[in-house]
Amino acid sequence: MPAKKNNLFLDILFSVVVPSIILMKFSSKEQLGPLYGLLIALAFPLGWAAYDLIKSKTVNFIAALGLVSVLLTGGIGLFELDNKWLAIKEAMVPAIFGIIVFASGFGKSPLVRKFLLDTGLMKTQLINQRLHEVGKTQEFNKRIRLANLYLSLTFAFSSVMNFILAKWLVTAPTGSEEFNDQLGQLTLLSYPMIAIPAWIMMVAILFYIWRTLTQLTGLDMEQLIEGD
After folding, report:
1. 57 phi-psi bin (left φ>0, alpha ψ -120 to 50, beta other)
2. Which spans in 107-136 are helix H?
3. pTM over 0.85
4. Cα–Cα distance between 157 and 68 in angstroms, integer?
5. Which of 205, 221, 203, 101 has the alpha carbon at shortest distance from 143?
6. What confidence tens digit (pLDDT) does each residue in 157-214 have?
7. Are the CB atoms for 70 and 84 separated by under 8 Å?
8. Bridge partners of 122?
9. In whole angstroms, what separates CA 85 from the centre of its chain?
């Protein structure tokens, strides 16, 4: 039985909304102060990501990288490093994903194929058998590699946009109330300006793969998706 997925509302609440409110509204010297405001704000996504890792009982690469990202943000703020490192960090996380996805395209099994066909979602044996019967295995592999390239470009888009947004919004010195406020704005705006467009791109890639499968195999999605 697949692991139960987190509620999207709780993901956004603990990772975006609550930290942003704390950073922007409770980091003044009269309240939590810049240091404790930053620490408490980062505790929410850090705790939520740790809870997800413990609950799933597996080391999820995405969740683990999220934990590292939060810790890096905390380190930049606590050690009062130049705020340029925040922009570099924001660009680094999706860039790592993009490089890994792109590099996998030169191997036997691109990550797009692994995510789609090797996770129990699709009837892999049926798909491979059908592609072999109609002589479309090579064409399918070609299209999968193209989809894998598109996915790596999606991460490249996120990396560039993260860097631009961080450089534009976060101009105050680290360790200041203004830095916390700008970091909160960055957290809030990164979802509608970066995350949502990136997810739309990923959905388009998924649709392209599904359409490729139905076209090449001659089967509809109900026949290709694993049942309960």
Report:
1. left
2. 111-117, 124-133
3. no
4. 21
5. 205
6. 999 999 999 999 999 998 888 988 998 898 888 878 888 888 899 899 989 998 998 9
7. no
8. 225
9. 20
